[in-house]
Specification:
Elements (H helix, E strand, L loop, with lengths): L21 E8 L8 E4 L2 E4 L1 H11 L1 H4 L3 E8 L3 E8 L30 H23 L14 E5 L2 H13 L18 H7 L19 H20 L3 E9 L2 E9 L2 E10 L7 H4 L2 H17 L6 E10 L6 E5 L4
Parallel strand pairs: 9-10
Antiparallel strand pairs: 1-5, 1-6, 2-3, 4-5, 7-8, 8-9, 10-11
Helix pairs in contact: 1-3
Amino acid sequence: MPFQLWRRKNPRLKGYDNSQEGAYFITLCVQGRQCLFGSIVDGAMKLKPAGYMLEKWWNGLERKFPLTKIDIHVAMPNHFHGIIFLLKENQEESSPIKADVPHKNAAPRGAHTGAPLQKIMQWFKTMTTNEYIHGVKEHGWRPFRGQLWQRSFYDHVIRNDESLNRIQEYIATNPQRWELDRENPRAKGEDEFDQWLASFNTRPSLTCRGAPACAPSVGSRHLGDAGEDLAAEALKKQGYKILERNYTCPLGEVDLIARQGKSIVFVEVKTRSNLNFGGPREAVAGPKQARLRRLAEYYLKQQRLAGASVRFDVVGITAGEDCPQVEIIQDAF
């Protein structure tokens, strides 16, 4: 029988330019499926120090690559899932909201602006590999065989808001589905999510104009940043004490966390240049409400505030030419 050279299947969508703006679902797997980052206990991921290390470098992507926006992520025993937005590289648009605070996403000198997805993931894999090797030498972490990560990574182009919500839900519940996980060496079945994901075998449209899964423009991000500044000031005037801004955890991000009286308040800020697409309350729909509730439970557990009174508020800001309008909606859902 003649010898045939084995060719590795490309895990990315053929013919698609992964350097263009959009939303991507990322999966990186440990070489040999070794469980190095933690274990699943009662349907929850119990992280080892190596797992926390992954989260640290993932949260650092926006600082290294200013034209990125990270979303929900999870470190699993032998792989990592996350959603990342690539932003369009263009001139910064002026925001109709005036704010004295410098934009938190302003690119530092020498930053890797406009980097393609492959370059971003290669940096993440390099940084995590280097720190893992240090952990093996200095802290007795379990050694890996050959290399830490598989040679490439898997990415899925997120087409629309429905897909985005489904993938966010999958990431949030991934530890509970470990027995069906394709990366689990002892999996006892097949997850229907994998079948759904495999059904996308065509390239998405090259334009994502108006698509919910498109990454926001730089100007839109600055509009949102300035809106959060105004929201924080308005809340302070109403007696709120700001505890966290842009709090990020494996379940995602919340704009503001505050205390008012005896209540811990989780605040979603919605900034609009107009109301053509509905008001702020309508913008926080069912899937986002469920995500915020899970995030609140995570935060309270981490801060040892179990049993505290919790409330979910929405601050709507409409940017006008003269003066932005600020609306605080308490007990929004």
